[in-house]
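Narrative of accomplishments. A recurring question from our advisory board has been how the design workflow behaves on a single, concrete structure rather than in aggregate. To address it, we present the structure tokens for one chain from the evaluation set, followed by the sequence designed for it. No filtering or post-editing was applied between the two.
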């Protein structure tokens, strides 16, 4: 009981409803039930909270405009406490007890990987807004995502470090308990080595650790120019503090898992000069991003991170598919999600390929500077229209980078 109360208070504090509560303004018994599962509490809590905010914003817009096929959407939200076993449990419950027609979640790849087989075997379509491990959508034809995958993310970071920063000695610190971390570390390493770089030290930790000093000491003695740490924000903040305490001055680099309003809050000054790849940049002048950021700030009082943007896009893509589906059953909705083409999302135009991953999504490299997160660079996959246009004048190698520094937030 005490634990439940704490959860409720924590959720109230960030403006989220308690799990399983309707927040989309729907009432009566005629709603379309959509399940959401995510890390509303636990070490990755901001992932679930931001995603939830994005989903609610999208669904409230849809309901205010009349819903889908004349029916309102009701989102049933379950907290998996940042645990893979709970992700599987909550998805089983949403399917068997609540009969949801579709699922939105998860963020962390290990959690999506645990839940996806259940969605797949029940023929309930699932859209992960932000899980980047390639294996997630390989779980079956009912599993989709809204984000780029880690082969592209790892190669983009390797290219940025070797080609833009001209560094050829990197260390890697990986979370062995995370499918995301181990996968991204491998993709980074192979691309970095292919670029002529060398991995001078490789160390590991496990989710839940809070002393990283022995690994960092080993890395320090290998004298890398950069340390690649594909982890989640709560660990990164602590790792950065301990690295600086040990006299390590080199920049830390990472992937989208760093994205959280808590990153700089936890890591403070220790984060200065470090950088990571992300799905979107809140300071993007694109009118669709500007409108989203403004509406989100008005409602939640904070700048939306990429999880909020991807959650919003996932919900809108699902609604688009449901409105086109002949019937609101799993197979019909699945077919329409699979047919998503040119959908104008906040994180880019979304077209799903035959592997159920979006095609041609851009990647932003963000850096912590003066306690703020600023844009360093953007990458586009080869074969996207902009890359193709560039290639007509000069041959380019994938991914393509364009330097465009700008300030975040305001
Ligand atoms: N891509 C991460 C994973 O697969 C999750 C994540 C996405 C975290 C975007 C932060 C921002 O585990």
């Amino acid at each position: 009981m005490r634990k439940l109360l704490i959860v409720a208070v924590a959720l109230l504090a960030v403006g989220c409803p308690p799990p399983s509560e309707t927040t989309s303004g729907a009432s009566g018994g005629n709603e379309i039930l959509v399940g959401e599962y995510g890390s509303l509490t636990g070490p990755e809590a901001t992932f679930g909270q931001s995603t939830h905010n994005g989903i609610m914003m999208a669904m409230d817009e849809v309901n205010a405009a009349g819903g889908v096929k004349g029916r309102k959407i009701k989102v049933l939200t379950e907290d998996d406490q940042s645990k893979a076993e709970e992700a599987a449990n909550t998805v089983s419950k949403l399917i068997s007890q609540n009969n949801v027609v579709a699922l939105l979640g998860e963020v962390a790849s290990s959690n999506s990987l645990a839940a996806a087989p259940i969605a797949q075997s029940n023929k309930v379509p699932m859209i992960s807004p932000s899980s980047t491990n390639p294996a997630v959508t390989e779980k079956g034809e009912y599993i989709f995502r809204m984000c780029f995958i880690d082969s592209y993310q790892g190669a983009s970071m390797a290219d940025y470090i070797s080609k833009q920063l001209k560094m050829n000695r990197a260390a890697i610190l990986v979370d062995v308990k995370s499918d995301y971390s181990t996968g991204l570390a491998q993709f980074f390493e192979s691309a970095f080595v292919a670029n002529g770089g060398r991995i001078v030290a490789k160390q590991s930790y496990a989710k839940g650790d809070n002393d990283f000093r022995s690994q960092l000491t080993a890395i320090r003695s290998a004298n890398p120019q950069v340390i690649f740490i594909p982890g989640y924000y709560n660990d990164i903040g602590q790792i950065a503090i301990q690295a600086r305490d040990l006299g390590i001055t080199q920049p830390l680099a990472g992937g989208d898992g760093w994205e959280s309003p808590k990153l700089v809050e936890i890591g403070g000054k220790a984060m200065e000069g470090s950088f990571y790849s992300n799905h979107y940049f809140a300071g993007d002048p694109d009118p669709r991003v500007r409108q989203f950021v403004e509406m989100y700030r008005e409602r939640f009082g904070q700048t939306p991170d990429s999880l909020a943007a991807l959650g919003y896009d996932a919900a809108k893509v699902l609604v688009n598919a449901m409105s086109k589906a002949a019937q609101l059953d799993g197979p019909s909705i699945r077919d329409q999600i699979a047919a998503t083409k040119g959908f104008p999302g906040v994180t880019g135009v979304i077209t799903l390929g035959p592997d159920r991953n979006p095609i041609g999504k851009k990647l932003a490299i963000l850096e912590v500077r003066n306690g703020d997160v600023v844009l360093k660079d953007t990458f586009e996959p080869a074969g996207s229209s902009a890359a193709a246009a560039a290639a007509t004048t000069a041959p380019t190698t994938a991914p393509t980078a364009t330097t465009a520094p700008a300030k975040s937030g305001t």
